[in-house]
Write a structure and sequence with these properties.
single chain, binds magnesium ion, 8 helices, binds adenosine-5'-diphosphate, 3-stranded antiparallel sheet
Length: about 325
C-alpha cells in the first residue's frame, strides 16, 4: 500500500511538473511595451497572475509619472524652489536610492536631468553644434545635490526654482522588480517581467532550463553574439543607435551628460546584469554617460553587477566576470 501510494504520488508530481507551461502577454504600460511571462498550470491561473502584475505596474506608474499632474512626483516638481512635499515612504525610498546611484556614478546618473533644456535634437534637424554657453546654461537647474531629503518628515524638496525630477532611466526597472516580487509572493514559480528591454526573471522554464537573454550588436542587428543565462536576476539593455547626431565625424548619442550638457559619445549599446532591474536600469544609462573605461571600472567595483558594452565601431567590451566566446 505504502509503495502504491508513493508510486501514485510520483506520477502526480511528474504530471504536475509536465503540465506547467509558459504564458505571455504583451501590452503598453508606462508608455512602453511590456512583455509579462509566467509559468503556470493553465491559462486561468496565468491570466490571474498577469493581471496582478499589471495592477502593480499601473500603481507604480501613478506614483512616479511626470505626465500625470496629480502624481506625487508632479507635486514635488511643482513645488521646486517653494516648499518640501510630503510623499509616500515608497517614493521617498526610490528617490533616496536614485540619489545614491548619483553619488556612485559621480552624477552621471541624475533624476534631476529632467529640467535640462532640450537644445539637442536627434531627428536630423540640427545643422550646427549649440554654443558652449548654451550647453552650459541648459544644465543650470540640474544637480542631485539640490534634492533635499528629510527622512523623519518623509519630504522631498527641490531647492532651486525650475528644477524637475523624472524616472525615465530607473522607473521601468523598478516596476519590473516590484511586479516580480509580488508574483513570487503570490506563489508564481517562474517568470519574466520585460519592460522594453529592462527585465527581471525568476525560476526556471518548465523543462528545467534557465531563462536566457540574447545580446545583439545593434550595428549588426541579425547577429546575436551572446546567449546568456539569467538566473533569478535582472538584465537591462539601453540602446542608442537610432537617435544621434554627427558633428565633425563625432557621433553624439541622445543620452546627455547631466553634468556638462554634452551628449554621451562612443557607445551604442549597454547591457547590465544585476540582482535588481532598478539598479541595472540606472547603471545602463550611467555607463553611456561615463564612457567605456570609467563605466567598466565602476561596474567592476560593484559585487554581483556585470556589463557588456558595444562601442561605435561595433567592438565589444565586457566587465571582468563576463565571458563571451564568440565575438
Ligand atoms: P530607455 O528607457 O529608452 O531604455 P534608458 O533606460 O537609458 O533608455 O533611459 C533613458 C531615459 O532616461 C531618457 O529618455 C531620460 O528620460 C532619462 N535620462 C537621460 N539621461 C539621464 C541621466 N543622465 N540620468 C538619469 N536619467 C536620464
Ligand atoms: Mg535605463
Amino acid at each position: 500500500m505504502q509503495s502504491l501510494f508513493t508510486f501514485l504520488f510520483i506520477i502526480v508530481a511528474i504530471s504536475n511538473s509536465f503540465s506547467q507551461q509558459i504564458y505571455k502577454r504583451t501590452l503598453t504600460l508606462m508608455g512602453s511595451r511590456f512583455d509579462i511571462t509566467v509559468v503556470a498550470k493553465d491559462q486561468i491561473v496565468a491570466d490571474t497572475s498577469i493581471d496582478i502584475a499589471i495592477t502593480e505596474i499601473k500603481r507604480i506608474e501613478k506614483l512616479i509619472s511626470s505626465w500625470d499632474k496629480e502624481s506625487q512626483t508632479s507635486l514635488i516638481n511643482n513645488n521646486a524652489g517653494i516648499q518640501p512635499v510630503k510623499v509616500d515612504d515608497e517614493l521617498f525610498a526610490l528617490i533616496q536610492r536614485a540619489v545614491g546611484i548619483s553619488k556612485l556614478t559621480d552624477g552621471a546618473f541624475d533624476i534631476s536631468y529632467a529640467s535640462m533644456d532640450r537644445i539637442w535634437q536627434f531627428d536630423g534637424s540640427m545643422i550646427e553644434m549649440p554654443s558652449a554657453e548654451e550647453i552650459k546654461a541648459s544644465v543650470a537647474k540640474v544637480g542631485y545635490q539640490k534634492i533635499i531629503l528629510n527622512k523623519e518628515e518623509s519630504t522631498v524638496f527641490l531647492s532651486q526654482k525650475g528644477m524637475k525630477i523624472g524616472f525615465g532611466a530607473i522607473g521601468k526597472g523598478y516596476a519590473a522588480d516590484k511586479a516580480k516580487d509580488l508574483l513570487i509572493a503570490k506563489g508564481v514559480s517562474a517568470g519574466i517581467i520585460n519592460a522594453s528591454g529592462d527585465m527581471n526573471t525568476w525560476g526556471k522554464q518548465p523543462d528545467g532550463s534557465d531563462w536566457k537573454v540574447a545580446i545583439t550588436n545593434p550595428l549588426n542587428k541579425n547577429n546575436a553574439f551572446a546567449l546568456l543565462p539569467v538566473i533569478d536576476k535582472a538584465v537591462v539593455t539601453s540602446g542608442n543607435y537610432e537617435k544621434y547626431v554627427i558633428f565633425d565625424d563625432k557621433r553624439y548619442a541622445h543620452i546627455i551628460d547631466p553634468r556638462t550638457g554634452y551628449p554621451a559619445t562612443g557607445i551604442v549599446s549597454v547591457s547590465v546584469f544585476a540582482p535588481k532591474a532598478e539598479l541595472a536600469d540606472a547603471l545602463a544609462t550611467s555607463v553611456f554617460v561615463m564612457g567605456i573605461e570609467v563605466g567598466l571600472n565602476r561596474i567592476n567595483q560593484l559585487g554581483s553587477v556585470e556589463c557588456i558594452i558595444v562601442d561605435d565601431h561595433g567592438n565589444i567590451h565586457t566587465s571582468n566576470n563576463i565571458k563571451i566566446d564568440d565575438q
